[in-house]
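User: We ran a pulldown and think these components assemble together. Before we commit to crystallization trials, I'd like a predicted model of the whole complex to look at. Sequences follow.
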Amino acid sequence: MANVLWLQGGACSGNTMSFLNAEEPTVVELITDFGLNILWHPTTGLQIGDQVQDLLKDILDGKVQMDILVFEGSIIQGPDNTGTMNLFADRPMKDWIKELSEVAGYVVAIGDCATWGGIPAVPPNPSESTGMQFLKKNKGGFLGPNYVSKGGLPVINIPGCPAHPDWITQILVAISVGRIGDVQIDDYHRPKTFFTDFVQTGCTNVVNFAQKVDGGFGTRGGCLFYEVGCRGPMTRASCNNILWNRQSSKTRANHPCLGCTEPGFPHHDLKKGSVLKTMKTLGVFPKEVPEGRSKLAYYMEAGFQKILPTNKRVQETSK
Amino acid sequence: MSVTELNISPVGRVEGDLDVKVYIDNGKVTRAHTQAAMFRGFEKIMAGKDPQSGLIVTPRICGICGGSHLYCASSALDTAWGTKLTPNALLLRAIGQASETLQSIPRWYYAIFATDLANKKYADKPLYKEVVKRWSAYVGETFQIGLTASGLPVQIYALFGGQWPHSSYMVPGGVMCAPTLKDITRAHAILAQFKNDWLEPVWLGCSIERYMEIKTWDDMLAWVEENESQRNSDLGLLIRAGLEFGLDKFGQGVGKFLATGTYLHKDMYNNPTIEGRNAALISSSGFFDSENYHEFDHMKVSEHVKHSWYGNQEDGLHPWDEPLPTPMKSQTLHDSDFDNQYSWSKAPRYDGHAAEAGPLARVIMNANPNNKEHQIRDPLFGDIIKKLGPSVFTRVLARVHEAPRIYKFIEQWLSEIDLDGEFYVKPVEKDGKGFGATEAARGALAHWIEIKDGVIKNYQVMAPTTWNVGPQDGNDNPGPIETALLGTTIEDPLDPVEVGIVARSFDSCLVCTVHAHDAQSGAELSRFKL
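Assistant: Here's a predicted model for the assembly, 849 residues in total across the polymer chains.
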C-alpha cells in the first residue's frame, strides 16, 4: 500500500500516456493488485476544485500521508521567477512542488522535462524551465543539489521522452512492495536497473554497427550511427531489452535513437545540421564516438572495416 | 436561485491548464471566459534551429496527439522542400495517424468522459446503476477492458515508429522504416485482438460491418433496439443513457465547424503541394457554417491576440505573417481583466468566424454530398446535426462513431503496403514556406513553417484546443467553449458537473478551473466547496 500523488508542470502528458500503456502490471492491476492508491492524477483523478486543494493542504499538514510524489513536466519558473506561466489550483505550481517535496516519502521525476528540463528548457527557454534536481547535466535544478526526501533519497529520475511505462510502474511497485532498498541510482539519479546498459545492447543492428555497414531511412538493415545520428552507443537505457509497447524500439523500427534518457536531450540544442543527422568532424568522422572509446582508435577501426568488412552477410536483408 | 459564484480549481482529466470563469443567473450560465494557464513557448524554441526540429519538438507539444504533430511537421517540410512521397510512405503515415486516433477513442471515452456519467447528479435516473457498474473509474467492468484495449492500436504504431508516444518516424520524403512481412502480419493480429477484446463484443455488440450500415439517426435508434446484444453494448448504453441524462440538451457551441482533413491518398499526393492537398484527402477538409459547406483554404485562417498575453502583434494575422510569441505579464483568473488580455491561448478564426474543431466537425465533412469517390461518404452526421443539432451528446457520439471506420482503414492500408516498394526518397533541402495539417483525435491541427538561410525563421502551430478554448477575438466574439457554456443549466451549484462535461465533450487539452460571478456586477459572491 502506497499513496501516490501525481502532478504535471510544463508537461505534454506523454509520460501519462506512456504509463497508461503499461502491461505488466497494467495501470488497473497496479491499483487493484498492488494496492497503489492514487490520491490524485490530472488525467484520471475524480476529485475536482476545492477537493483537490483540500487534499494538497491535508498532505502538507500531515493529515494525509503521501508516500510518493510523482512529477511530470518541467518546473516552470517564468516569468522572472514568479512561476505564473504555470498556475495550478490558484497558485504557481512551483510553490506547490517546493512544499510538497518537503513532506514526500519519495519524489519520482518522470520524463525528461521533470528530470533535466527537457525541450521546454532548450535555449532561449522562454518559460524559465528546469528539472527537479538537474538542469541539463548540472545538478541543482529546482530543489537544489542537496535535496533528499523523507525516505532518505534524492529525486529518483526516470528520464526518457517519454519514460517507458515499465520503468515507471516497476519503481512504483518496488516502493510499494518494500524493495526501495534495492533501488540503486547512478550519478544522474537514474535507477541502475534500467540505465546501466546502452540502447545499443540488444539492438538488432549491432552486427551492422560492428561491421560498419551503413543504414539510412527507408531501408532494411544497416546501422544508423554513421549518417542519421543514432545515439544508441552513447545512451544508457533498456529500450532494446524491455521493448516499447511490447513490440519494438526506435532502432528496431529503423529510427535513430535520439538519446532521450541522457541529460543533454535534445542534443546540440537542435542547432542546424544536428537533427536526424550525424554531426561530423572534417566532414567524415563522427563528432561523438561510442562511450568509453578513444576517438583515434575508433576512427582507425572504422576505416579498416569500411575497406575490409569481415562479414558481408550482414548486408543482406529479407522483406 | 440567485446569482452564484462557483470556484473549481482544478477540474482534471485532460492535459494542460485551463481556467473558466462563468457567470450564472437563475441557474443558467450567462457569460463564460476561458483562460489557458500554462505557457512553454515551443514556437520560440524552434526559431533559428535546424529545419527538421519540428519533427522532434512538435510531437512533444502534446503527448496525447504527438503522432498528429509529427504528421503535420513532416507534411509542412514536404511542401516547403517539394519532396516525393511514395504510396508506401503515404500508407505508413496514414496508418500511424489512424492508430493514434483509434487508441484515443476508448482511452478518452472511459478515462476522461464516461466517469462523469457516474456522478451522483444522475443518481435518480433508471440507467444510473448500470452506468456506475460499467464506467466507474478503475473498478468499472468495461472501464477496465476499454482502458486496457486502448494500448493495442499504438502497438501497431510502435511496429512502424518504434514506440508510441513520441516517435519521429515520419520525415520529409517519407518514413524512416521499411517494414518486413513480420511487421505487417503482426499488425494485422494486433488489430484483430483490438476488435475481439473490445470493439465488437464490448463496444458495438455486433459486427463492424453491421454497424457501418447505419446511415440515419432513425437507423441508429433502430439499431439500438434491434437485439439485446446491441442494446446492452457500451454504445447502446451510451445512446440510451445519454438521452435519458439529457446530454443532448446542452453544450451546443458556435454551430460552425472546421476540419483540416486527413489521410492523404496513397496515389494522389505523391508530389505534395499545398494546393493539391484538399483533393488528395480521404477524410475531407472543409468549413461548415451550419447550413453550407465551403472548401477549406488555409489562407482564410487567422489568429487574434487582443485577449491573449502576447505583445508586438496586430490582430487577425495569417500564421505565416505572425511574429513569434512575445509573452506578456499574466494574471490569475481572479485578477484577470476580461476586457483585455486573459489567456495564453490565441483566438483562431476561419474567414472571421469562431469554429469548432473535433470529431464532430470531421463526421460533418464526411456527410458533404460533394465528397469524391475516394473520400469518406457517410451521411449519418449530416442527418444527426439536422435532427439533434450540436450538443455534448452529438459530440461524444461523433467521437466514438469513428472507431469502426478507422479499424477498416488500417486493415485495408496494411494490405496495400508493397514490401518491394520504396519508403523514402531523400529530399533536397531548401528555403521556403510550408504548410501541413491533419486531424488529431480531437480535431484540426496545422503547422506553418518558414525556412530562411537553412534554419527555421518562423514556426506556427494551431492545435484543435486553440480553436476550441481560444478566448474572445478582436471583435470580442467568444470562442467555441465559451459559447457552448452559455445557457447551460447548473442544477446544483454545489456540484456543477455540467461545466466539466461540456469542456470534456470537446476533449480540450487543458485542465479546467471554474469561477462563477454575479452577472450584473461581475463581483465574486461566495465560494462553494465542491
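Residues 233 and 290 of chain A are 5 Å apart (CA to CA). That may be worth checking against your pulldown data before setting up trials.

User: Thanks, that helps.
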